[in-house]
Amino acid sequence: MTDSPAVRGVADLAPLERAREQKAWYWYDWANSAYFTTVLSVMFAPYMIEVAGNAAGCPDNLDDAATCGNTVGLLGLDLAAGSLPFYLTSFATIASAFLLPIVGAVVDRSDHKKRHMAFFAWAGAACASLLFFMKDDQWQIGAVAIVASSVLAGCSVISYSAILVDISTEEERDRVSSRGWAFGYLGGGVLLAINLAMFLGHDAVGLSSSMAVRLSLLSAAVWWAAFTIIPFVRLRDRPPVDRLPVTGSIVDRSFGQLFRTLKELRNYPMTLTFLVAYLFFNDGIQTVIYAASTYGSKTLGFGDSVLIGTILLIQFVAFGGALLFGRIASRIGSYKPILYGTFVWIVIVVVAFFLPEKNVPLFLLVALAIGLVLGGTQALSRSFYSLLIPRGREGEYFALYNAAERGTSWLGTLVFALVFQLTDSYRPALLALIAFFAIGAFFLMRLDPQRGIREAGNVVPSTL
């Protein structure tokens, strides 16, 4: 006598186990978003400009420090104080481009993905905590800390993204990825709200503005490290899938697999097409977010309270935007929302270029638009890409993906910094980013999503 379908459904505990781990997995988005929001998006760049400006002999006024033209020396190069944070971010991603694929190959062969994730997270948080010691004219320690923490953050996200494939089916992927991103925006927003209150009320609690910023930077590192404990404890490790027999040292195996991965990409033309598209449109997204506070301060003339409050608004709107895009994807799949999202980003950049100075209502409207599209395009890009990679190669392929991921983009920030240095204005630097979204859209339109998923050996979701 065989069990009835209802009995088999009750006996099948796999969905419940996946749901439990998915909830644990969300916590790492909650943990690391504090670093990407408080540090990379809001606090670091303006504060680094101020500290580097002090070292360059610029006036005490922060706006003048960003535009006075004085330079600081880094590795034999003379860099404008106003461009220094963007050059550092570009350097971090160039370094990541060489390191992350090696880390990804190791992750794919490991039985302990969550340990890799936690190790890199805690090491990155330790480096980020050194930002607390950046003060006066001592920008060098901040330069080392931001590069190291950015690279380590990228390394941790490789294992985190690879775990997504282990804990969700193809049909669940968009929902799980969207909820993770939404949870991350909520966590980043909560800590930013706390830091906003501390910064705005620093006089009332006896803190200087510099100390308030430094404590905010430190809080992001502590938040990142502390909440990483939850997924580390609750996730379970799984053996690798289709692990190939190899010989030689770990470094030899890693580089060897890296070359095989790059060579194998020719067999997955749709995967390669999406990677190229993502490289461009994500670089544009990351640069818009990374430069938002600097653009609002130096070009539009807003004070710190408006800027931080606007970024906080973006965080909470992005929480809803990620969930909204997840629901849309449950009906029409993830490909079309990503494509349409790139066109929305072009409109946002054009509108931001024409924003008049100190017009708060218009600035907030742009922020609302950014929030709605931000979470959705990033969350669905992750889940859609996971369908385009062969099983057992998640670490290697997500390493290539994360080389262009949030906080580690390099083309956009490099162009932004160069255009600013050539024009002494952030408006043309911002407008130049349209090219990244246009190129990304071009490659997305050349992509056949169903073909790409089948070529990777995965099941095409019924909604796509």
Automatic annotation (TrEMBL):
Xref: InterPro entries: Atg22-like, ATG22/LtaA_families, MFS_dom, MFS_trans_sf
Location of the Major facilitator superfamily (MFS) profile domain: 270-464
SUPFAM superfamilies: MFS general substrate transporter (SSF103473)
Keywords, sorted A to Z: Membrane, Transmembrane, Transmembrane helix, Transport
Keyword Membrane: yes
PROSITE patterns xrefs: MFS
Localization of this protein: Cell membrane
A Pfam family recorded for this sequence: ATG22
Ranges annotated as spanning the membrane: 84-107, 119-135, 141-168, 180-200, 212-233, 272-293, 305-326, 338-356, 362-385, 397-420, 426-445
Membrane topology: Multi-pass membrane protein
UniProt xrefs under PANTHER family: AUTOPHAGY-RELATED PROTEIN 22
Protein name: MFS transporter
Naturally occurring in which organism (per UniProt): Nocardioides marinquilinus
